[in-house]
Amino acid sequence: MRDMADTGNSDDLQALGALFKPLARLMIELGIPLRDGLEVLKLALVDSAYERAPDASASHVSLLTGVHRKDLKRFEQAPPPPRQTVAAAKVLTLWQNDSDFLDGDAPRALPRGGDHGFDALVRRAKVDAAPATVLSVLQTAGAVADRNGLITFLTATLVPEGRAEKLQVALATLVPHLQTAIGNVAGDAAQWDQALRYSHLSKDAARQIEAEAARLSLDMLKTLNELAFRLQNEEEGTHLFVAGTFTHVEDQSS
């Protein structure tokens, strides 16, 4: 395969190509052809340009992005799709922290109705999804069970079953991470973005480190979850905070 450097492209284009490679795999997995992918890219360019300069003219945006003005005219803002899996995760978080839905330190089994029932929990979580929809997502993921009419909390680990739900969870993590990393490159106020890399480990060693990373990460996220829930209840505002962890194990011998 021809290297991008052979075409005379800059280092910036090579960096962009490295970012596009996993996105290209996602396009193939989702069955999205190049034509549709280009439409999404055009719209993303236009949205980003207007976020940078809300009062910019169509001519300026077209010049900045390379998107033709006839394309600008037909782009319309569409409402975002419902983020049902993300909504379900928020409900699980509230269930583990709000004293109205706890029995001691553990999430209490809830009826559907009532002031302290499951439907009330969903409403208090302020998610854009109906209680029945959230319940279905949680049951499908194995996070809750209906036992004798009571919705019982089983696990805080929400592992979605369907591809669409898995994609929602991935986007909730990937998009903020990319915004942080690219913002740091673009000169925005610096935000925390660090990773540990070792490239000459045995398979067993890599898996051992992966297990330890998962254990430490769960402890960290639990602590941050409790702190964030308390602070948000003390003073609600408009700022989003996202913290996440990941591990990546890959055989680089080929």
Q: How would you sum up this structure, described in words?
A:
The model has no long low-confidence stretch (mean pLDDT 87). This protein folds into three domains: 4-74; 84-153; 169-234. The protein contains nine helices and four strands; from the N terminus they run αααααββααββαα. A hairpin with a 2-residue loop joins β3 (144-147) and β4. α2 (34-52) packs across α3 and α5 (84-97) crosses α7 (131-140). It is 55% helix and 5% strand. It has 254 residues and is mainly alpha-helical. The strands form two sheets. The protein has a two-stranded antiparallel ribbon. It has a two-stranded antiparallel ribbon with strand order 3-4.
What's the SSE blueprint?
Elements: H1 11-30, H2 34-52, H3 58-65, H4 69-74, H5 84-97, E1 102-103, E2 106-107, H6 118-124, H7 131-140, E3 144-147, E4 150-153, H8 163-186, H9 203-234
Antiparallel strand pairs: 1-2, 3-4
Helix pairs in contact: 2-3, 5-7
Distance between the termini: 15 Å
**Could you list the spans in which at least 5 consecutive residues all have pLDDT below 50?**
none
Q: State the helical fraction.
A: 55-70%
Helix and strand sequence: HHHHHEEHHEEHH
Tell me the strand percentage band: under 5%
Shape: globular
Instruction: Give a quick account of the main beta sheet: strands, pairing sense, barrel closure.
Output: 2 strands, antiparallel
Q: If you compute it from the alpha carbons, what radius of gyration comes out, rounded to the nearest whole angstrom?
A: 22 Å
Indicate how many domains the architecture comprises: 3
